[in-house]
Amino acid sequence: MADPINNPATDGDDTEIVEEGNRSILLDLISQLTKGSDLHRVTLPTFVLEPRSMLERITDFMSHPEIIVQANHLEDPVARFVAVTRYFLSGWHIKPKGVKKPYNPILGEHFRSKWTFADGTEAFYVAEQVSHHPPISAYYYASPENNISILGDLLPKSKFQGNSAATLMQGEINVSFTNRPGEEYFITMPNVYARGILFGTMLMELGDVAAVKCPKLDLVCSLDFKVKGYFTGTYNGIAGKIKRISTGEVLYEISGKWSDELYITEKGDKQIYFDAKTAKIHPKIIAPEDQQEANESRRLWSKLTAALRVNNQTLATEEKCKVEDAQRARSKAREEKGIPHIPRFFEPQGDGFTIKLKNISSDPQVAKKQISDFIFTTPALSP
Fold first, then answer.
1. 94 contact partners, CB below 8 Å, separation of at least 6
2. Among 78, 263, 295, 256, which residue's Cα sits nearest to residue 183?
3. What is the longest distance spanned by two Cα atoms in the chain?
4. Tens of pLDDT along 208-247?
5. What is the pLDDT of residue 312?
6. What pLDDT is attached to residue 216?
7. Distance CA 291, CA 303 (A)
8. Three-class DSSP category at 110
9. Roughly what angle, to the nearest 10 degrees, separates helices 313-337 and 302-309?
10. 377 and 364 Cβ atoms separated by less than 8 Å
11. What is the number of other CB atoms lying within 10 angstroms of the CB of residue 40?
12. Within the chain, which residues score under 50 in pLDDT?
């Protein structure tokens, strides 16, 4: 089923005027914190929530698949690197209006979707909350017919910083083209800031440095997501350079706004790199909620989402607590029995997680069936 709901605006305002009642709730919450406090264990009021799980939010980076598909068709390695960097930058403009935070996934929650492209090829995605303390989301995107594999993990850490809150987006994305052995792109994320919590207008900004790096191609791109100063600068600005790792030679410069137009400059020649205003989001296909498993994101949070859509904050809080309380009870029961949580789709590898599916065929059609079956087949119930 095509995705008819939970489509965030792509041209929404980054600012939000907080009603006095809601501001009072925030002030009461914040009064209990000290600067630098970890916000992950703090129950946030429901009016700050975006009506979808973080596991689904990650799919925003798969919204313009033509960029990554075309990248693999480029024989020039520098051009491929430029295209992969463009792919990474293409997902940030998709956002809800105002300052909203996706649901924190509960342990064992998962989200699944797929995409069908104009040429009949497909892509598949699965994300799972593999750890709760610390919170870790692992995800996998694959389009075997296009030789694309993306594996990542996200470890968000939220901190209170006075009049703002920061979400430090730790983790790494690994992009690879399966027909190009050893060519792996390692990507890190910028951090997310919510400003104006105590006073002023609330707004969301991306800040700090992200990077795209491919050791085999000897290329790296450092991307500075700029936050606006009190008196200077602009919102949503970005500046980056694509360089040779070995020599430091600058090949391209990137500028503009991640929410609007991005530019790339080579030897003084400035061209449009990505235009968020004209880019079309490719719809993902998701099973109807009544066909989803109980711990699948949209079904799991369906009552909370419904309450948020009619702005019933009291009911939203109740429904959110029901899901979280049930998760706490399950975790306590496991701990009392000494039973560890074992993720369904992912397993630890090094400092991160990898997909459990092994021995994926080099034949695209066979690999397509392997991956689709692995993601979408419901496991048999234990006797």
1. 8, 10, 60, 63, 281
2. 78
3. 68
4. 999 999 999 999 999 999 988 765 678 899 999 999 999 9
5. 93
6. 98
7. 16
8. strand
9. 160
10. no
11. 15
12. 1-5, 9-12, 15-21, 23, 25, 382-383
pTM strictly above 0.85: yes
Burial classification of residue 336, based on how many CB atoms lie within 10 Å of its CB (0-12 exposed, 13-18 middle, 19 or more buried): exposed
What distance in Å separates the CA atoms of residue 306 and residue 302, rounded to the nearest whole number?
6
Q: What are 36's two structure tokens? A: 């630098």
Structure confidence at residue 163 (pLDDT): 75
Amino acid making up residue 300: L
**C-alpha closest to that of 95 among 169, 11, 158:** 11
Q: Can you tell me which residue has the tokens 């051009």?
A: 79
Strand runs labelled E in the chain: 15-16, 49-53, 101-103, 110-116, 122-131, 136-143, 148-160, 164-177, 184-188, 191-195, 202-214, 219-226, 237-244, 250-257, 261-266, 269-275, 346-349, 352-355
Coarse DSSP helix, strand, coil percentages of the chain, rounded to the nearest 5 percent: 25, 35, 40
Residue 376, classed as helix, strand or coil, is helix
- Domains of the chain, CATH where assigned: 15-274+285-376 (2.40.160.120)
Which amino acid makes up residue 325?
Answer: D
pLDDT at 378: 84
Look at the block and give the residue holding tokens 């235009």.
Answer: 275
Q: What is the pLDDT of residue 42?
A: 55
pLDDT at res. 20: 46
Task: Give residue 190's identity as a one-letter amino acid code.
Answer: P
Give residue for tokens 């064992």: 108
pLDDT at site 9: 47
Are 226 and 98 in contact by the 8 Å Cβ rule? The answer is no
Taking residue 319's Cβ as centre, other Cβ atoms within 10 Å add up to 20
Q: Nearest-CA neighbor of 258 among 280, 225, 229, 234?
A: 225
Q: Are 241 and 253 in contact (CB under 8 A)?
A: yes
Scan for tokens 């998701």, then name that residue.
286
Residues 316, 317, 320, 323: what is their CA dihedral angle, to the nearest 10 degrees?
-120
